[in-house]
Every structure is written in structure tokens, then in C-alpha cells.
């Protein structure tokens, strides 16, 4: 069975500092990994995905994520946080052969000025 | 271009009533998904449509829930005899291909359902 864990309910970071939002996954086949962001009263916005190839994936709004197969992790990163990055972030996995996304519980990112 | 749209944005209903939620996917996308976001259960898959194939209904929580997709485009999620535990945000997503695991799902803004 597919599963995703986001161990932190909330991450606090000061504007201008680097940020990391953690995600680990479990799948039986090859993992397809996704990050989405949700702003208040909005749907989910796609940030980036890992399918194959380079372990470092670059996405929207300056975000990137590093795929680590041995640690089964896909942490979201940004070199310099903005106050406007404050939102709810979801990691999701799609197992090979399945269509549905399985989401983590979400991590609230709070960037202080 | 236009994204996924959903209507209504908010729906308040009384326990026991039926509700219909609508989703208009991105034009040309063959796959359509429904998810539910609630405080207690997080984000959970409900149902998936791929072209003219039979839908994957494995995530529907009870037989009070049903969905259809007409003409391979618009989809309606129907909840009969609503219960308070049905209160949640219902999210619709579409993707270009669906059958490829590499496909990206694009989400609509959701419908917030409140059952009194």
C-alpha cells in the first residue's frame, strides 16, 4: 500500500532563510512524487514532481525538492523564504500502476517577516 | 487557459437532503478525479474517471455517494441523504492522460459542503 508521511505539522522560518518541508513515502513499485501548495480557501496548486532522472527537481516559485531513494524521502526546499510562501504544503505519492494520489497530512509553513 | 472549475463554491444543506456538486475539468483532459478534504481524514481519494472506461469507485465511503461524467467532460458528484460527517471540502482534479503515472493532476478551488 502507498503511504506518505509529513512528520511536521508546522514549520516556522524567518523571511530570507532557507526552508525545508519534510516528506517520506512508502510504495511497492516506482514512486511518482508530487508537492502541492494550498492557500486559504483555495484548491491545491501543483509545485513540482519527481518521475525519474535527476534527484533534484525544480518547480514553481523557486521551490525544489530532492528525491532520496535510500531514505525514501522527497523533501521540499527553498533557498530563501518569502512571507508569501506561508501556506499549507502537501506531499503526495502515486504508485506505479495506480491512478489516485495518496496525500500526506500536510505541513503548515509560516514565514515571519 | 481556464483551469478546473467547481460549483457551487459553498453549499449549506440540512441533514437528510441530497446535494449535487459539479466539476468542469480542463478542456481536453481525459481523466477526472474527486477527492475530499476534511479535518479528521485529511485528503482522501473518492473516484476516478478515465475516458470511457468504468470509473474507479474504490474510494467512495458509502453507497450514498455516486458520481457520473457526461460526455467525457463535466462531472457531478451526488451525495444522498447527507449526514453531518459529510461536511468537508470536495475537490475535483483533472489530468491530460490519467493512465500514465507521470501525469499531473490539476485541482479546482473546491466546494465547501456544510451539513447542518
Structure description:
The complex is a heterodimer of chains A (113) and B (116). Chain A has 113 residues and is mainly β. Chain A has no helices and twelve strands. Chain A has strands at 3-5, 10-14, 19-21, 24-26, 31-38, 44-50, 56-58, 64-68, 73-78, 87-95, 102-103, 107-112. In chain A, strand 5 (31-38) and strand 6 (44-50) form a beta hairpin. Chain A is globular, with a radius of gyration of 13 Å. Chain B has 116 residues and is mainly beta. Chain B contains no helices and ten strands. In chain B, strands 2, 4, 5, 8, 9 and 10 form a six-stranded mixed sheet that branches. Chain B is globular, with a radius of gyration of 13 Å. The model of chain B has no long low-confidence stretch (mean pLDDT 92).
Write down how many β-strands of chain A occur, each being a DSSP E stretch of 2 or more residues.
Answer: 12
Biggest interface and its residues per chain? A-B, 26 and 26 residues
**How much of the polypeptide of chain B forms β-strand, as a percent range?**
over 45%
Task: Decide which structural class fits the backbone of chain B.
Answer: mainly beta
The CA-CA distance between the termini of chain A, in Å, is 41 Å
End-to-end Cα distance of chain B: 37 Å
Shape of chain A: globular
Mean pLDDT over the full residue set of chain B: 92
Level of helix content of chain B? under 10%
Which consecutive residue ranges of chain A, at least 5 long each, have pLDDT under 50?
none
Q: With helices defined by DSSP (H or I, 4 residues minimum), what is the helix count of chain A?
A: 0
Amino acid at each position: 500500500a502507498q503511504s506518505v508521511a509529513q512528520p511536521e505539522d508546522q514549520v516556522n522560518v524567518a523571511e530570507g532563510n532557507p526552508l525545508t518541508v519534510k516528506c517520506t513515502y512508502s510504495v511497492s513499485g516506482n514512486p511518482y512524487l508530487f508537492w502541492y501548495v494550498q492557500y486559504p480557501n483555495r484548491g491545491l496548486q501543483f509545485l513540482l514532481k519527481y518521475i525519474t532522472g535527476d534527484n533534484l527537481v525544480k518547480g514553481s516559485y523557486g521551490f525544489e525538492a530532492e528525491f532520496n531513494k535510500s531514505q525514501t524521502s522527497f523533501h521540499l526546499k527553498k533557498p530563501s523564504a518569502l512571507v508569501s510562501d506561508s501556506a499549507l504544503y502537501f506531499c503526495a505519492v502515486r504508485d506505479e500502476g495506480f491512478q489516485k494520489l495518496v496525500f500526506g497530512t500536510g505541513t503548515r509553513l509560516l514565514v515571519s517577516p | 487557459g481556464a483551469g478546473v472549475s467547481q460549483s457551487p463554491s459553498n453549499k449549506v444543506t440540512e441533514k437528510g437532503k441530497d446535494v449535487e456538486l459539479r466539476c468542469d475539468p480542463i478542456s481536453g483532459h481525459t481523466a477526472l478525479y474527486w477527492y475530499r478534504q476534511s479535518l479528521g481524514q485529511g485528503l482522501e481519494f473518492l473516484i476516478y474517471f478515465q475516458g470511457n472506461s468504468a470509473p474507479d469507485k474504490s474510494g467512495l465511503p458509502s453507497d450514498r455517494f455516486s458520481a457520473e461524467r457526461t460526455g467525457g467532460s463535466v462531472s457531478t458528484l451526488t451525495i444522498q441523504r447527507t449526514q453531518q460527517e459529510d461536511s468537508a471540502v470536495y475537490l475535483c482534479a483533472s489530468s491530460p492522460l490519467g493512465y500514465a503515472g507521470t501525469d499531473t493532476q490539476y485541482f479546482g478551488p473546491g466546494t465547501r459542503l456544510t451539513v447542518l
